[in-house]
């Protein structure tokens, strides 16, 4: 996985502050189709970092849909999460309807003061803190700190000594590709919350399943805010099944690494420079990012560009049977 070494030199100096950046996201394929034509089946959406080969869904029972989720099912998911992520015994785990739901609620767990969110990064964190009255800053010292590890879009991996605030949020939504680099051992420290997502590595964004892991006091506050039955019956069953399937996870990491290497070779041959990313998405420096996006869109391939840079282009991995579409568009 690419480190951050070559990233800083390619940043746009006119980049907006964390709190002032537009809340743009990948996805929204419908808008691309409206502008460039074609049907949804014609398109490959590479604008997100979602695994194109998602975890195969296990059989669901009728009661998963018709009954309120019971405590046994919730405990089974929590136990599977503790084993899979090797969560410290003293840290608490809360399952939620997606990491985004947790991100929106985290700022209210402490009095609104100052928070360090180094950009560029996933912009929902800054928006959530800003909406709750916090002062969002690029550098510390501050009362809170948010890091995305590995970072989106550059793949930066944070070091433990860089996390210094008394209230620390570590967003590991993409860290299942590199579990050896996880900072989950810090979840036992006071004032710390580690976030996990099922929408990226597992490829199940529509399942809406995420986890907050950390300081029992903070997790208790999130639990009260979420209320009972926050996670659906189908999500409980699928999540438990997936987290118990270590063989799938290990094989998937190898497949994603191969895909990322293949994508880099294609893009570099087409004139792009790899400047960062993870095995789920790659970040490229190109002369004119918007022109590249339009070129790919004419071939019904949707990519991601950013409001703070005219040169950054981010691509996810194509499905196994759609690589030829990308290869043709780049030649």
Properties at a glance:
331 residues, alpha/beta, seven-stranded mixed beta sheet, 10 helices, 32% helix
Structure notes:
The structure is a single chain. The protein is an alpha/beta fold and 331 residues long. Helix content is 32%, strand content 18%. It contains ten helices and 13 strands. The chain has a seven-stranded mixed beta sheet, with helices on both faces. It has a four-stranded antiparallel beta sheet with strand order 9-10-13-12, covered by helices on one side. The chain has a two-stranded parallel sheet with strand order 1-11. Helix 5 links the parallel strand 3 and strand 4. Helix 4 runs parallel beside helix 5. 44% of the residues are buried. The N terminus is likely disordered.
Number of strands: 13
Helix content: 25-40%
> Major β-sheet, in short?
7 strands, mixed
Please tell me the overall pLDDT.
93
Q: What is the string of helix and strand elements?
A: HEHHEHEHEEEEEHHHEEHEEEH
Identify low-pLDDT runs. Answer: 1-22
Query: What distance separates the N and C termini?
Result: 26 Å
Radius of gyration: 20 Å
Shape category: globular
Count of runs of 4 or more consecutive helical residues:
10
Beta percentage is 15-25%
SS content category:
alpha/beta
Strand order of the largest sheet: 2-8-7-6-5-3-4
SSE inventory with pairings:
Layout: H1 29-36, E1 44-45, H2 62-66, H3 71-85, E2 92-96, H4 99-105, E3 114-117, H5 124-131, E4 135-137, E5 144-148, E6 167-171, E7 192-197, E8 210-214, H6 216-226, H7 233-243, H8 246-269, E9 273-277, E10 281-285, H9 289-298, E11 301-302, E12 304-306, E13 309-316, H10 323-330
Parallel strand pairs: 1-11, 3-4, 3-5, 5-6, 6-7
Antiparallel strand pairs: 2-8, 7-8, 9-10, 10-13, 12-13
Helix pairs in contact: 3-7, 4-5
């Amino acid at each position: 996985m690419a480190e951050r070494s070559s990233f800083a030199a390619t940043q746009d100096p006119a980049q907006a502050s964390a709190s002032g950046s537009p809340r743009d996201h990948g996805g929204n394929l419908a808008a691309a189709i409206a502008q460039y034509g074609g049907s949804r089946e014609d398109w490959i959406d590479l604008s997100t970092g979602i695994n194109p080969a998602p975890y195969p869904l296990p059989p669901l029972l009728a009661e998963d849909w018709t009954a309120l989720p019971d405590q046994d099912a919730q405990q089974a998911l929590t136990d599977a999460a503790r084993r899979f992520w090797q969560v410290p015994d003293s840290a608490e785990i809360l399952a939620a309807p997606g990491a985004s739901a947790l991100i929106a609620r985290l700022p209210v767990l402490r009095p609104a003061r100052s928070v360090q969110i180094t950009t560029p990064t996933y912009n929902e964190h800054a928006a959530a803190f800003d909406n709750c009255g916090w002062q969002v800053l690029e550098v510390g010292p501050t009362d809170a700190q948010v890091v995305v590890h590995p970072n989106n879009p550059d793949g930066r991996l944070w070091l433990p000594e860089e996390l210094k605030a008394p209230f620390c949020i570590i967003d590991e939504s993409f860290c299942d590709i590199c579990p050896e680099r996880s900072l989950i051992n810090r979840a036992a420290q006071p004032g710390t919350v580690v976030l996990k997502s099922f929408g990226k590595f597992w490829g199940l964004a529509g399942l809406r399943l995420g986890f907050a892991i950390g300081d029992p006091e903070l997790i208790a506050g999130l639990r009260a805010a979420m209320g009972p039955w926050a996670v659906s019956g189908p999500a409980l069953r699928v999540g438990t099944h997936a987290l118990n399937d270590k063989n799938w996870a290990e094989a998937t990491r190898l497949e994603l690494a191969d895909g990322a290497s293949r994508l880099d070779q294609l893009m570099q041959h087409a004139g792009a420079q790899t400047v960062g990313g993870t095995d789920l998405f790659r970040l490229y420096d190109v002369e004119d990012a918007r022109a590249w996006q339009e070129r790919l869109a004419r071939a019904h391939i949707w990519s991601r560009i950013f409001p703070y840079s005219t040169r950054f282009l981010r691509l996810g991995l194509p499905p196994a049977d759609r690589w030829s579409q990308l290869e043709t568009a780049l030649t």
